[in-house]
Design goal:
alpha/beta, 12 strands, about 10% strand
């Protein structure tokens, strides 16, 4: 039995690869790279303000060219006059529709082309200092170097995870390509997490005096693990509430074997069954995200913390670059100041030129939040973490896509809020409900899109998409989270971690506390 905090020696120490051996060591006294405080606090306001400016310009452009109102309400009614000024009940002219569609297509194409151009330049880069993980550099440095067969060491960070940990370990042991090592990183556990792990026959390492949550616990273990890892000794991080589908590791190992420039592989996640309507909302979200990843041929937005594999070279390079070209403290793989460590690590790897994918064969089932309160806490952390990461990195080629995403979210918040206000204004302004064929037609197209994008989720997912309005209400909930995140950042409020309590089956009714 390993003593508290000890790292069990690696049974297979592979030789260091040529690139890692030639990489220059950065000074340990380097100060962490951080953007100025005002920029980090103003990032949410900048995003939402930019989206609001775009929405205002669009409104003025359409209003200036609006047609005469059809079935306009009485001018004697103040609400009716407000309705007439804010919203044109007539269908817009064909020219306006075409211009709006053209602008939308142009914007989408522009973002896609810019993203493709930045990715292509990174892949072709030969600048070691700017892009040390660029595929061209990695391929040149490792040509003719045999780093041994691909192995997998799995790290499972766990804080009071006695309920779900057993299923996670079982899914790993049941893989057609079993991992060579499974290490449970027990962080300040007060339940039987350690006992569950040891009874499953896996290694256990307990964190020592860690106050930096999941990132701090993983940094402690990685600091001892990575020096003994060869280039093909993959490190996988799996959340303790995640179950891997069979074939995940086989597909990931095959990809890593075929492409030595590939630095990381992320999983596509689906929600666990249950928890009624709230659970279905989350499952529909995850299905749509996985569909988007398939359409992007696996090009990653985020290396999800539920399950991701990394080459040791990638993690060592991140640790060496902290405080220099990327934010963080020298020697840390995970930035302990980041609320969303998986999103931050993704941006870090992209900033260093790393190539990563999320193949459709690599799927996992993850936990869904059981209550609205838990979901609010989880999404607030996700949204605030994403904005804070942008504030830390600033506007760079690697973050361009993320800035565009946040602008899109901000515009969506404004558009949906305006839609709800106009519907309410119409209800109070008109004596009878009026159906406008043009806008009803757009609504029907939107409903079809909602159904098609969750088709693989089964009849419950399709029915929820077809109903339309429940998902609109869920979108309003998420928009409220977005606005709350911006307010918290702008006001400098301290972020806090929340917990989910689950009830264990059995007469003793123990509880499991899961860190969000």
């Amino acid at each position: 039995m390993a003593p508290r905090g000890a790292m069990i020696p690696n049974p297979r120490r592979a030789p260091e690869d040529a690139l890692a051996a030639s990489a220059p060591l950065l000074p340990a006294t380097a100060a962490p790279v951080r953007r100025s405080g005002w920029f980090r606090r103003a990032v949410g306001v900048l995003v939402l303000g930019s989206a609001g400016g775009a929405a205002t310009l669009l409104w003025f452009a359409v209003a200036h060219d609006s047609a005469t109102l059809q079935a306009a309400p009485s001018d004697d009614d103040l609400l009716a006059r407000g309705w007439g000024m804010l919203y044109d009940t007539a269908a817009p002219r064909v020219q306006v529709v075409l211009v709006a569609v053209a602008l939308a297509v142009l914007l989408a194409a522009g973002v896609a082309l810019l993203d493709d151009r930045i990715t292509t330049r990174s892949r072709r880069s030969v600048n070691f200092r700017a892009n040390p993980l660029a595929p061209k550099i990695v391929m040149a440095a490792t040509r003719g170097v045999f780093a041994g067969p691909v192995t997998v060491t799995v790290l499972i960070p766990a804080h009071d995870e006695e309920v779900s940990l057993g299923a996670t370990i079982s899914s790993l042991l049941a893989q057609s390509h079993r991992p060579e090592r499974i290490v449970v990183v027990a962080d300040n556990c007060t339940d039987s997490t350690v006992a569950v792990a040891r009874s499953s026959g896996v290694e256990v390492v307990e964190s020592v005096d860690n106050v930096l949550k999941k990132a701090g616990a993983l940094n402690q273990v990685l600091a001892r693990l990575l020096p003994g890892q060869g280039d093909n000794d993959l490190v996988m991080v799996v959340d303790a509430d995640t179950v891997l589908d069979d074939g995940f590791l086989a597909a990931a190992v095959d990809r890593m074997t075929q492409d030595r420039a590939l630095m990381a592989i992320g999983g596509l996640f689906y929600g666990q069954p249950g928890f009624g309507l709230l659970g279905q909302f989350q499952r529909n979200e995850y299905i749509r995200y996985a569909r988007e990843m398939r359409r992007r041929r696996g090009r990653v937005f985020v290396l999800t913390g539920t399950a991701a594999l990394f080459r040791p070279l990638a993690l060592r390079t991140v640790a060496a670059s902290r405080g220099q070209s990327i934010p963080g403290s020298q020697g840390d793989v995970y930035d302990t100041a980041a609320l969303t460590e998986d999103n931050e690590l993704t941006i870090a790897l992209k900033s260093l030129g790393g190539l990563m994918i999320s193949p459709e064969e690599c799927t996992v089932v993850t936990e869904v939040m059981p209550t609205w309160r838990n979901l609010w806490a989880q999404r607030l952390r996700w949204q605030r973490g994403a904005l804070e990461n942008l504030g830390a990195y600033g506007i760079t080629p690697a973050t361009t896509r993320y800035w565009a995403q946040q602008l899109g979210i901000g515009y969506g918040v404004i558009a949906l809020a305006a839609y709800v206000v106009l519907i309410a204004l119409m209800a109070f302004s008109l004596s009878t409900w009026v159906w406008f064929p043009f806008w009803a037609g757009l609504g029907a197209l939107f409903a079809i899109e909602r159904v098609v994008t969750v088709w693989k989720g089964g009849w419950r997912a399709r029915l929820l998409g077809l109903a339309l309005f429940p998902e609109l209400a869920f979108a309003i909930f998420l928009n409220a989270v977005y606005v709350k995140g911006i307010l918290d950042i702008s006001l400098g409020r301290q972020a806090s971690w929340k917990h989910v309590e689950h009830t264990l089956p059995g007469a003793d009714q123990k509880t499991e506390t899961v860190l969000l």
